[in-house]
Amino acid sequence: MTTDKHPENASEPASAPVAVLGLGLMGHALAAALLRAGHPTTVWNRTPGKADDLVAEGAVRAGTPAEAVAAAPLVMACVTDYDALHAFLDPVEEAALRGRTLVNLTTGTSAQARDTAAWAAGRGLTYLDGGIMAVPPDIGTAAATIAVSGPRADFDRHAPALRALGGDVLHLGADQGRTALYEMAVVGLMWSMLNGWLHGAALLGTAGVSAAEYTEIASKGIPAVAGWLPGYAKQIDAGAFPPDDATLDIHRVSMAHLVQESESLGVNAEFPALIKAFADRAAAAGHGGEGYPVMIEEFRRPAAKPQ
Ligand SMILES: NC(=O)c1ccc[n+]([C@@H]2O[C@H](COP(=O)([O-])OP(=O)(O)OC[C@H]3O[C@@H](n4cnc5c(N)ncnc54)[C@H](OP(=O)(O)O)[C@@H]3O)[C@@H](O)[C@H]2O)c1
Description:
This protein has helices at 25-36, 52-56, 65-70, 82-89, 94-97, 110-121, 152-157, 159-163, 178-205, 211-238, 248-265, 270-287, 296-300; strands spanning 2-3, 18-21, 41-44, 60-61, 74-77, 101-104, 126-133, 141-149, 166-171. It is α/β, with parallel strands linked by helices and 307 residues long.
């Protein structure tokens, strides 16, 4: 993984024109950040009214996707999913696409990203697949991380426009599927964290503790757990799981308490029961005396199909 701090190739100037297709919550934030950074920005959205305030701020409204693509060598797209992307890009004539660069910031799977890279190559369109690790209000600030994979030279060429979107702009390699794969991993982590927090809020809610009170304590735990990850990652990479802090078996005792507490308070116990099921399987395979990351083996294989 590299950042854009030392571009290896010549970049477009910071004033290079950009077209943004898709002005939902995220696309709108992207276009607004590009405008703020001084990029002449052409915008298109299926529902045209979503461009009104951007046009008032200096964006140019395109009447069709083809018109937007024609306006700039760099085209950014950010819509619901890849079906939506192809719904409006497929009909654009090959001659209009040829020679341009598409940075697709739509979330999808790595296979969809690679298929779209092949689709783009067939039209002479350079393809960079992007992932946004931020929410719309953070776009254009240091809090936003933008990850991109695809040809390095094209990433470098468009680094100034990408830098307008976030403080950290990462190149994750030439394989266009890599960023989507990272994005899937990161959203999975986000949902696990959010679900754990929601379950905790439901538990404490039974005792009249507000979500805000709970969150004061809960948010202290998140950086603490994040601090364990580099050491655990070393164990995974080395394939050895000494119980440096706690054994999986001791975690399983607490997991049983969490299930029991949830059930006795009438709170949904499915999420902690699922966590415990993974740990129980690892223990049944003989790993109860090892450290928590030994459970990676449970995540590496598909679930057994019910008989
Ligand atoms: N919001 C976030 O916090 C966030 C964070 C990271 C990544 N993302 C990713 O960014 C992408 C957009 O998310 P969002 O929050 O901006 O979603 P959104 O507000 O729901 O906007 C969806 C956009 O897709 C367009 N669209 C949907 N179907 C279409 C079709 N068939 N043809 C043309 N346009 C179509 C919509 O056009 P209309 O306006 O005409 O409906 C709209 O511009 C998603 O892939 C999402 O996973 C979002």
